[in-house]
Amino acid sequence: MQQVTTRLAVWGDPIAHSRSPQLHAAAYAVLGLPWEYGRRQVAEHGFADALASLDDTWRGLSLTMPLKEQAFAAAGTRDRHAELTGAVNTLLLTGAAPQGFNTDVGGIVDALAESRIERVESVRVVGAGATAASALVALAEMGATRIDVRARRPAKAAGLSVLGARLGTIVRVEALDAPVSDETDLTIATLPSGTELPETTVSPLAASGGVLFDAAYAPWPSALASAWGEHRSIAGFGMLLHQAVRQIRIFTAGDQNAPLPDEAAVVAAMRDAIA
Hints:
six-stranded parallel beta sheet; alpha/beta; six-stranded mixed beta sheet; Rossmann fold; globular; 275 residues
């Protein structure tokens, strides 16, 4: 009798650049799980039909832009980080209804801790999308009391101020090119890969922004990191790695906070896969 394949994948649009297949394949090899993990380009308007077409061989999905809000709507249950951000980047498909999780929040916290940044007070976030919301939650959990958000369209980022109030953190939303009056310890950039900002915008942000943590990782250094001058820049590979570790915990045990068996070996193999 032929064994039924267990399937997982990352969906997004675009998706060809994703390193998730290498990360997950490396982890499942160490764990001894003969699971298949692929990638599929799925647009926003096609998400519902694509999800409905999956059969019982599918165990879970990783979701990237622009599908995190669609995945949130499709989830029957959601973890706290998903509820706070309105974004789901992981769907577990083993129950009666999809279970939604946000592992980006924990991925940011874990990646910063790996760079010896565990507590923050004043932070700047550049960008205002789903990743920015995850960054706000992560920063609040790390003790941030004041977060300066810089957005192309500040009026459309008003929800981040509301989220900040829920988290007990002061969030001020301004335009990307608004005058800079305060210094911060850390800047988290959540702009899409390849985004280039005018030097007149970047220079004051870099001069007062402390360490740069850029969620972008391909290509590296990003345009923003290249412009950061003497300040230290941290690539988004750490976030990519650690949010994937949390996804694998969910796909294997249903809990993103439950360490994997021999997790150190799993993480080492994943790191080697994208070195």
